[in-house]
Write a structure and sequence with these properties.
By secondary structure, the chain is of the alpha/beta class. It folds into two domains: about 30 residues, no CATH class; about 170 residues, Beta-carbonic Anhydrase, Chain A. Strands 2-1-3-4-5-6 form a six-stranded mixed beta sheet, with helices on one face. Helix 4 packs parallel to helix 9. The longest helix is centred in the last third of the chain and has 17 residues. The structure holds zinc ion. Zinc ion binds next to helix 5.
Length: about 200
């Protein structure tokens, strides 16, 4: 059952453990120093390691259905992870990475009858209401909700003490991103136009 994964691990091992000054032994020796902290959906198609094609040691990862960030509460997995990444490492960029065709957003809109999932999604009801108000004729409610949830998650992030303090000191920035799976774009919210615009390649 796990053969597919172990074959992939073998390929990773050849790249990361062999040759001159291989990556993994170096990261073990010197420790990690990632610049990014990415909050993404659990969706198997929107995995940041895959879509950004990055090497080990590039970013911290946190996953939640719909990439939803709840308002701050002490003692949560996310609060501790952000504290570790910002205060004990040199992370300077937080990314909330939503994506199109998100099952969590669909469940929110469809009001899925599942106690466990609904109780998690409850926090995003306000975002859905905003999206319903904001959706102009011809625009897809799903897409507008996916975008709105990213914006609300970014807003909620700023209430986490480690994030709030680092923002006040100008140490970090937060990027509201949406992975457009159909078109193959990473879109970023432009506060001037209030539109998620595809990022032109900077490389
Ligand atoms: Zn999703």
């Amino acid at each position: 059952m796990s053969k597919l994964l172990l074959k992939g691990f073998q390929r990773f091992k050849e790249k990361a453990y062999e040759g001159d000054d291989p990556l993994m032994p170096r990261l073990v020796r010197e420790g990690q120093d990632p610049r990014y902290f990415i909050i993404s959906c659990i969706d198997s198609r929107a995995n940041p390691g895959t879509i950004f094609d990055t090497a080990a040691g590039t970013f911290f990862a946190h996953k939640a259905m719909g990439a939803i960030v709840r308002p701050y509460k002490t003692g949560t997995a996310l609060a501790a992870a952000l504290d570790f990444a910002i205060n004990y490492n040199a992370v300077d960029t937080l990314i909330v990475l939503g994506h199109t065709k998100c099952g969590a957003i669909d469940a929110l809109i469809q009001n899925l009858n599942d106690e466990e999932i609904s109780s998690f999604l409850e926090v995003a009801q306000g975002g859905l209401a905003k999206a319903q108000q904001k959706t102009k004729p011809g625009r897809d409610l799903h897409r507008v909700t996916e975008e709105q949830i990213v914006l609300d998650s970014v807003e909620n992030l700023t209430g986490y003490p480690s994030v709030r303090d680092a923002l006040a000191k100008g140490k970090i920035e937060i990027k509201p991103w949406l992975f457009d799976m159909e078109q193959g774009h990473i879109c970023e919210h432009n506060p001037k136009t209030d539109i998620f615009e595809p990022i032109e390649s900077e490389v």
